[in-house]
Design brief:
The protein is an all-alpha fold. It has one domain. 74% of the residues lie in helices and 0% in strands. The longest helix is centred in the last third of the chain and has 31 residues.
Amino acid sequence: MTLRPTIVGPEVESLIWRLVRVLQSAPGLGWVTYDGVEFTANVAMFMPLGGLIVAWRGRWWHGILGGLILSAGIEAWQLLFLPTRVADVRDLVANTLGAAVGVGMMLIFSRWRTRSQQAHNPRHRKVIDSPAQ
């Protein structure tokens, strides 16, 4: 998707425009644009990267930096080697934001999981299972 020689084919572009029109016709979503859908897709595409880096025991900033470096590499590749593509700083921002959102979601999930596991610790079960006074 990011390193294709062309931006999108006519079938995909038609599908995206149909999605934009459907969203714009919904109450309260008249502000949705093609650029907004593209930005959101870029954010969503990089969310797993940030989350996986944290899941692999990386520090939170490793996930954000990884998204930034990968995105900068993709945009540089498009600029230097794909003349039909356009390198865009908005893509860099959206991709890095996506990695940051993925990092945040993984940190929230890991804290929730830790608390859940602590609640099932036998030492804590004694308090939970004791009869009310």
